[in-house]
Amino acid sequence: MTAVTYLDHAATTPVDPQVVAVLGAVLTEGLGNPSASHPAGRRAAVLIDQARSQVAALVGADPAQLVFTSGATEANNLAILGHAAGLTGAQRRGAQVLGLVTDHKAVLSPLRRLAEAGFALTLLQPDAHGLLSPQVLAAALGEGAQLVSLVHVNSETGVMQDLPALSAVCRERGVALHIDAAQSAGKLPLSVDGIDYLSFTGHKLGGPQGIGVLYVAPQRRVALQAQILGGGQQRGLRSGTLPTHQIVAFGLACQLAAERQAELAARLTALRQRLWQGLADLPGVLHNGHPQHCVPGAARAVAHADPLEAATPAASNRTTHRCRQSANAGGRKATVFQSRSSPAPRIRTPGSNRQSSCSKQSRHSRRSGIPSNLTAQSASAAANATAPATFWVPARRPSS
Ligand SMILES: Cc1ncc(COP(=O)(O)O)c(C=O)c1O
């Protein structure tokens, strides 16, 4: 059998052996329903409380402010749709919600659902590195702004947004901030300070799939509307029997991630450096991302079939950054704000049959299922792009 080296920890991480052991132990112990008052149920509830503290400690939260979910996707839906549903009639009139055009579908899709329900959706444009500037955010916040929902670390480039700066803008304007930390929790130091809602998930940090969490700041708790109704578990915010084994495993994974984080970050940063040094000698390889604001375990490169074409920054944009933008920019009633370094985007209206060659090729577009008639860039706009590449390794002629 061929040995496989699995490197895609942005998609999911292997479950830590200690976590596997605890999963098995809890499952075989024969615990009761944690809502039940008999001893087997109470024992499960005690274990869940311990795990709740471990998860909360990872992000400096009060354990009482956590709502367990099936993962980051559900946590995002609860934050975005639940926040919107909790707005008063007056807040709802002319309400604006904001996101970043390059972010994960687990954030963009619930935002789009709000646009369909009549909210004004503003999709912001990152700079050439993939970073959202606080100035761009501040300029886009309208009178009716109610929620900004952003991914902390991009799952494809590893680019990390400046949370303190973006949070300061939201605080100043009194707008709620939701952060999807699926790619950063356990990998970077993280705190809920200045954040209203924070989502993360077990399977990106050595825990099992199918368990995640939403932190809800105390001032948001009252208005937040549950999206899953039933037996009223978790103070009515997310009904359903709590999966004791999953939660206990998630708790341990969070604790282990916190203990190992600094050492792991140093090791991965050094490994990535070695990788880039090796890639720099290859013709036509472009580095896509940010040289500093990047999670340690991520590296993204694009190899051009024609290394000479890769020598131009515009070419790099055309095939990487631009494709991502067009793939992610769909959405009715969406406005795209952008930094000055990017050319003007064009929002297509639903019903148009034209499709950019860039979006046709985009892997993300195919995966995300965003209709091609809702792209933000036309092929010609992409081809004329003048913004610099994110940062790039100059191509060398292959030696013959
Ligand atoms: C940024 C981001 N958000 C959300 C998700 C979805 O998380 P989950 O699989 O826990 O629902 C992922 C991973 O796929 C992700 O990378």
Summarize the structure.
The protein is of the alpha/beta class. The chain has helices at residues 17-29, 39-58, 72-85, 89-92, 105-116, 134-140, 163-173, 218-221, 244-280, 313-319, 321-328, 357-361, 363-368, 379-383, and strands spanning 66-69, 96-100, 120-124, 145-151, 176-180, 197-201, 212-216, 285-287, 301-303, 334-337.
Helix and strand arrangement:
Elements: H1 17-29, H2 39-58, E1 66-69, H3 72-85, H4 89-92, E2 96-100, H5 105-116, E3 120-124, H6 134-140, E4 145-151, H7 163-173, E5 176-180, E6 197-201, E7 212-216, H8 218-221, H9 244-280, E8 285-287, E9 301-303, H10 313-319, H11 321-328, E10 334-337, H12 357-361, H13 363-368, H14 379-383
Parallel strand pairs: 2-3, 2-4, 3-10, 4-5, 5-6
Antiparallel strand pairs: 1-7, 6-7, 8-9
Helix pairs in contact: 1-9, 2-9, 3-5, 6-7
The chain binds pyridoxal-5'-phosphate (PLP).
Secondary-structure element pattern, one letter each: HHEHHEHEHEHEEEHHEEHHEHHH
Summarize the biggest pleated sheet: 8 strands, mixed
CATH topology of the domain at 17-99 and 135-255: Aspartate Aminotransferase, domain 2
Named CATH architecture of the domain at 17-99 and 135-255 = 3-Layer(aba) Sandwich
- The assigned structural class equals alpha/beta
The separation of the N and C termini measures: 37 Å
Assembly level: single chain
Mean pLDDT across residues: 81
Total count of helical runs of at least 4 residues: 14
List segments where confidence is low: pLDDT < 50 over at least 5 consecutive residues.
313-400
Helical fraction equals: 25-40%
Number of strands: 10
Strand percent estimate: 5-15%
Strand order of the largest sheet: 1-7-6-5-4-2-3-10
CATH class label of the domain at 17-99 and 135-255: Alpha Beta
CATH homology group of the domain at 17-99 and 135-255: Type I PLP-dependent aspartate aminotransferase-like (Major domain)
